[in-house]
Amino acid sequence: xxxxxxxxxxxxxxxxxxxxxxxxxxxxxxxxxxxxxxxxxxxxxxxxxxxxxxxxxxxxxxxxxxxxxxxxxxxxxxxxxxxxxxxxxxxxxxxxxxxxxxxxxxxxxxxxxxxxxxxxxxxxxxxxxxxxxxxxxxxxxxxxxxxxxxxxxxxxxxxxxxxxxxxxxxxxxxxxxxxxxxxxxxxxxxxxxxxxxxxxxxxxxxxxxxxxxxxxxxxxxxxxxxxxxxxxxxxxxxxxxxxxxxxxxxxxxxxxxxxxxxxxxxxxxxxxxxxxxxxxxxxxxxxxxxxxxxxxxxxxxxxxxxxxxxxxxxxxxxxxxxxxxxxxxxxxxxxxxxxxxxxxxxxxxxxxxxxxx
Length: 357
Ligand SMILES: Cc1ncc(COP(=O)(O)O)c(C=O)c1O
Known about the structure:
It comes from Solirubrobacter phytolaccae. The active site is at 183 (proton acceptor). This protein is an alpha/beta fold. The chain folds into two domains: 10-236, 3-Layer(aba) Sandwich (Aspartate Aminotransferase, domain 2); 243-356, Alpha-Beta Complex (Aspartate Aminotransferase, domain 1). The chain is built from eleven helices and ten strands. It has helices at 10-30, 38-51, 62-72, 90-97, 115-121, 141-151, 199-209, 230-261, 289-298, 325-333, 345-356, and strands spanning 55-59, 80-84, 101-105, 126-132, 154-158, 174-178, 192-196, 267-268, 282-285, 334-337. A seven-stranded mixed sheet has the order 1-7-6-5-4-2-3, sandwiched between helices. A three-stranded antiparallel sheet has the order 8-9-10. Helix 2 (38-51) packs parallel to helix 8. The longest helix is centred in the C-terminal third of the chain and has 32 residues, at 230-261. The protein is globular, with a radius of gyration of 20 Å. The chain binds pyridoxal-5'-phosphate. Pyridoxal-5'-phosphate (PLP) is lined by residues 61-63, 87-88, 90-91, 132, 158, 160-161, 178, 180, 190, 192. Pyridoxal-5'-phosphate is lined by residues 61-63, 87-88, 90-91, 132, 158, 160-161, 178, 180, 190, 192.
């Protein structure tokens, strides 16, 4: 390989499209409205339409999107929120930030929250359920919606890794997106959004993102300062148009990796029947992760681990053990391979050859 194989797409995306992004950012800034400019409203409208929602409210990060979704849903002290045992930290830390308690639930074979385990973990204090579309594969909207309806639980979708997948951003009462620089639709910085159909929730979210100011200009409720810069919104809007092509390329790479793994002792986490996957991450399971990571590193192929321990083992959540055998086993075995639209055919072949070996 002439240059190192990059785990993330950011540098190569900028090399290919940076001139256009720079011009779009300049145009957004030339309006004089670096925050809440027309580019933000235009991006929000495009995102809402893409996900089939009435409203998209852009905020400063996916982490804030989750926190605001909980607050808008009325989650607070005394409430419990069901969360999967495997995810990025923000899926559960937002619950503590809202003053509520996360209740960790074991995962299904595709490492998303297991609904049978959720049923067992439910108590009268359960107020909400955060369903994570882990690695880019959505949860089953019908099964999760039925669970929420049956148990009177607010369903919040953490779609941070799955934007572009069929039904991503449309599951439950509120859906949360992230545009952090590693995501499939990445901002030049941090960014997020909450999607919903409910006008009242959208109004609450707009107040939350800027100091609780209401439509009469009064600071009526407690709010924060969490805004998507106009320059970022302009770039994100442009990227929405490329998303389909980029996703198709990641799916083709995932198919090549699947094919290569079929001849090995490693197994892809894979796609659940009837579900859609955009391969934000390509994750395999292997009995000897360290050996495989070392072999790939020696061939110049970077890998990462998502995630090396269940969330409840993090000190912030108490750090203790839980009865989540599926999550425990997965966290010992998962390894993520590089996957993005700017890997060349030669690089993909290099990875598949190394896997076959
Ligand atoms: C599943 C999941 N939830 C939430 C987040 C938080 O998003 P952000 O980094 O934009 O705050 C991320 C990404 O970082 C994520 O992967």
